[in-house]
Amino acid sequence: MTVLRRIAPQLVTLAALVALVTLFFPDFLRIEVVDGRFVGPVMDIAKRGAQVGLLTVGMTLVVATRGIDLSVGTVMAISGAVAAWAITHDVSLAGTLALALTAGAAAGLWNGCLVALVGIQPIVATLILMTSGRGIAQLITEGRILTFSNEGLAFLGSGDLLGIPVPALIWFAAALAIALLMRRTALGLLVEAVGVNRSASALAGVNAAVLLVAVYVASGLCAGLAGIVSAADIRGADANNAGLWLELDAILAVVIGGNSLLGGRFSIAASLIGALIIQTIDTGILLAGFPSEYNLVIKAALVLVILVLQSPNLAHQWRTVGRAARRRREGVPLSAKAQGQ
Amino acid sequence: MNPRLYPLAATIAIFALAWAICVMQFPTMLSTRVVGNLLTDNAYLGIVAVGMTIVILSGGIDLSVGSVIAFSGVFIAVMLRDTNLHPLVVFVLLLAVTTAFGAAMGGLIHALAMPPFIVTLAGMFLMRGLAYMLTIDSVPINHPFYDLLDGAYWLMPGKGRLTLIGAAMLVAVAVGMVVAHRTRFGASVFALGGGEATARLMGVRVGRTTVAIYAFSGLMAGLSGIVFSIYTKSGYPLATVGTELTAIAAVVIGGTLLTGGAGFVFGTLIGVLTMGLIQTYIVFDGTLSSWWTKIIIGLLLLAFILLQKSLLRLSAIGGGRATRSRNEAAA
Asked: Staple A222 to which of A58, A113, A176, A280, CB 3.0 to 4.6 Å?
């Protein structure tokens, strides 16, 4: 029940958005079965949302520790480049996946060590990898777009299982696994403790440094997975464009999900709905038939409206207005109330 | 020496060292021609980085500036193509728009108590989107006044050219230095970077200052857009993607703390020039691929941050010792 109450604002936003898009594009919610696959705008959103969705899972944890990970888009490019390099150098599929995920985890380890051990602010620490990472990815691909034709790897990006696109399944499985890991164990609580006050949690016996490193490694792993999906989708590694600016979408998704950038309580489910909201905006604008030049302006306007509605100040003012109205209804004079306090 | 000056001194020392290494390998890099080109090529980055420095000094961040530069270029190009307005009039209009845009973002940040990161991210989408709405093509600028601006330069000794836009950057840095270090507004910015609650108790008008900070950044981004349009003689909505991050990196390399409250506008100039120097070195070398630029800038960023951290720790220890000895003397 508490979970439902937590994600209610995001669900309402998503529903309103879906209603809005359906107004412009009546077939939005229709799902057909074509060649044993589910086809429709909703499935398209689930598939296309996979990359931002995967990043969002890791980003939620990082943000919960009062951090931010600007490098995830670049890590996607690195892991995609590693995957494409490995598969074109006759490494087995399992080996390729292991290598690409290791690259993601290593990037996360680097970020985590800079943040937790060296003590650099997260935004600067991850900025380092963000600026240099694309160079590393280009180093691996030697500045070219590395293409491959391995069906097994491509399956991860464009295949489908039981009629559902594989990227959507990967995204869902990763989110479920991490959410269960966080909420069925004490890990989630510990992450929140570190986010609220690192030194206090360290004094209380939480190994804050290890936890912080682990959180960035998790973010790196998610980014690595997203990189594999993105490379598999286009059957090639594009070091310049893979995951470009997706870190911003992921951070936006976390914020729309109602998580504070100042750390503390987090909800992976709410963040994922945030990611779905962003993808619905993106896809919806296209389906509704607006010229593509208008995409960014509409997106900015919608994001702004959502942020204003969720603003802590505004919520506070609404509460004050509501309280005043209640007082007026109940006929309690304001001055008496003030004296009581 | 004041410990506060250590990061700036380190920045200048590293820049001098890097240049010395470059000159040892390529003696021609000491010429005023290289200096002139360094200033011209990095003019738009330097100007926008001045605005970013003020924002970062206040503890904020402005992700919208890259989009604002692109919007400015497109706005100028389309206005000059479709109307008969003189470029100077268009410049004034543009600066009014970008300053108002910055002020609006500052207002939102203050009124909604939202993190600047998110508000300026939305601003980044909005400005890029507006640029797309004006045109999706690259629009050339053909105006006699632009030829005049582009051709204006002062011949330095040694035949180096200090172009108008290079000089504009130096002026912008000077103005930024005065604003940050010599005005009441600048003092408020530093106070805000030290802590909002403290600043409020000290009598800083937080709302007004926040609006002014982002308005200043918007103004600088607009100015940078004008300079960029003179530099490229066109407007393109996809231009300067990611410039905000380059500017932030330049500010950090320049010795300003991203937490706010400590730093120097002059350091930012050195940060911009250091990054430009790497690019120039790679051009001179000719065998290095362009991706090495990114990797080296990343490593440099890391080196500077580690240096700053150790300097801060050193000065903290030194400061502690100084207080202790003072206390002992008092006792």
From this structure: A58
Cβ of residue B238 closer than 8 Å to a chain A Cβ: no
ipTM of the complex: 0.79
Give the CATH number for residue B107. Answer: 1.10.3470
pLDDT tens column, A43-86: 888 888 899 999 999 999 999 998 899 999 999 999 999 999 99
Tell if the CB–CB gap between A130 and B119 is shorter than 8 Å: no
B315–chain A Cβ distance below 8 A for any pair = no
Domain that holds residue A258: 2-294
Report the distance separating Cα A115 and Cα A124, nearest Å: 9
* CATH, residue A45: 1.10.3470
Residue A128: which of B129, B246, B302 has the nearest Cβ? B302
**Chain A residues with beta carbon closer than 8 angstroms to that of B258:** 121, 123-124
Give CA separation, B234 vs B131, B138, B218, B237, B239, in Å: 13, 7, 21, 10, 10
Q: Write out the two tokens for B319.
A: 């400061």
The total domain count for chain A is 1
What's the predicted TM-score (pTM) here? 0.85
Domain assignment of residue A313, yes or no: no
Tell me whether residues B298 and A304 touch, CB distance under 8 A. Answer: no
Residue A308 lies in a domain: no
Q: At what angle do helices B116-134 and A246-256 cross, to 10 degrees?
A: 120
Tens of pLDDT, residue by residue, chain B (331 residues):
677 777 788 888 888 988 898 899 888 888 888 888 899 999 999 999 999 999 999 999 999 999 999 999 999 999 999 888 888 999 999 999 999 999 999 999 998 888 898 899 889 989 999 999 998 888 888 888 888 888 878 887 777 788 888 999 999 999 999 999 999 999 999 999 988 888 999 888 999 999 999 999 999 999 999 999 999 988 898 888 888 888 998 998 888 887 788 889 999 999 999 889 888 888 888 777 777 878 888 888 888 788 777 776 776 666 555 444 444 444 4
- DSSP letter string, B78-126: HHHHHS---HHHHHHHHHHHHHHHHHHHHHHHHHHT--HHHHHHHHHHH
On whether residue B136 sits in a domain, the answer given is yes
Q: Is residue B227 less than 8 Å (CB to CB) from chain A?
A: no
Predicted confidence (pLDDT) per residue in A113-163, tens digit: 999 988 888 888 898 898 888 889 988 888 888 888 888 888 888 877 888
Tokens of A89: 């150098």
B122 touches chain A (CB under 8 A): yes
Print the domain residue range for B243. Answer: 3-318
* Secondary structure (H, E, C), A17-51: HHHHHHHHCHHHHCCEEECCEEECHHHHHHHHCHH
Does any domain span residue A20? Answer: yes
Residues of chain A positioned with their CB less than 8 A from the CB of B136? 293
Considering CB atoms only, which of B113, B292, B295 is closest to A311? B113
Using the beta-carbon criterion (under 8 Å), do B130 and A297 form an inter-chain contact? Answer: yes
The reply to whether B110 touches chain A by the CB within 8 Å rule is: no
Shortest distance, CA B153 to any CA of chain A (angstroms): 33
Query: What's residue B96's pLDDT?
Result: 96
**With contact defined as beta carbons under 8 Å apart, do A290 and A271 qualify?**
no
Domain count, chain B: 1
Domain membership of residue B328 (yes or no) is no
In a domain, B327, yes or no: no
Q: What's the token pair of residue A194? A: 């570190």
